[in-house]
Automatic annotation (TrEMBL):
Residues 14-158 form the N-acetyltransferase domain. Pfam families: Acetyltransf_3. It comes from Arthrobacter hankyongi. This is GNAT family N-acetyltransferase. It comes from the Bacteria.
Length: 206
């Protein structure tokens, strides 16, 4: 079983880098692209909250419950990192099983529908199943976030259930949380589907 530790992952469209304070300004520019913090069904940090959000994620990393990444475009001309477009994480880490949830993800609006989101999910899933040896990977989202639910289902994840009145949103309202998962024996089929979609850019998710 591999250690769940910071790592850089390079895909077809994106590079996932371990989150650091050096990414702050790029993340602020990315979140302003579409004013994502104004979407009521998400928990995306506002520009002035970005430094605190980086601190929060890095503190959870220190505690062993989160592995946060900054999502950057892959610069095709150099093969290196390009513009910062968002954040994603392994969260609610159970290192003993091991099991992770992929979540706390957002991408700049201009990156939606470009293949960057499925590419980052592919990288995280591949690392979880093929390197970390996870028997299962989990996804969670707001019941009312239909776009997210549909995108998770298109990954090939199966819905496990709904946790009703599970947590509170930023405005204090109770949220029902939909839980999805992919199991290790399902990964080969999910991987093939993702590779096909990435190859053909047949993706309409965020």
């Amino acid at each position: 079983m591999a250690t769940i530790a910071p790592v850089s992952l390079t895909g077809k469209y994106v590079i996932l880098e371990p989150l650091s304070h050096a990414h702050h300004d790029g993340l602020v520019d990315a979140v302003r692209d579409g004013e994502l913090w104004k979407l009521w069904y998400t928990s995306v940090p506002a520009p002035e909250e970005m430094r605190d959000e980086i601190d929060r994620r890095l503190a959870l990393q220190e505690q062993g419950s989160m592995l946060p990444f900054t999502t950057r475009l892959l610069d095709r001309s150099t093969g290196g990192p390009g513009a910062v477009i968002g954040m994603t994480t392994y969260m609610n880490i159970d290192a003993q099983t091991p099991r992770v949830e992929i979540g706390s993800t957002w991408n700049a609006q201009s990156a939606h529908g470009t293949g960057t989101n499925p590419d980052s999910k592919f990288l995280l899933l591949r690392h979880a199943f093929e390197v970390l040896g996870c028997p299962a990977v989990e996804f969670r989202t707001h019941w009312l976030n239909l776009q997210s639910r549909e995108a998770i289902a298109r990954l090939g994840a199966k819905q496990d259930g709904v946790l009703r009145s599970h947590s509170r949103t930023r405005d204090g309202a109770l949220r029902d949380t939909v839980v999805f998962s992919i199991l290790d024996h399902e990964w080969p089929a999910v991987r093939s589907g993702l590779e096909y979609r990435l190859q053909n850019r047949g993706w309409n998710g965020p």
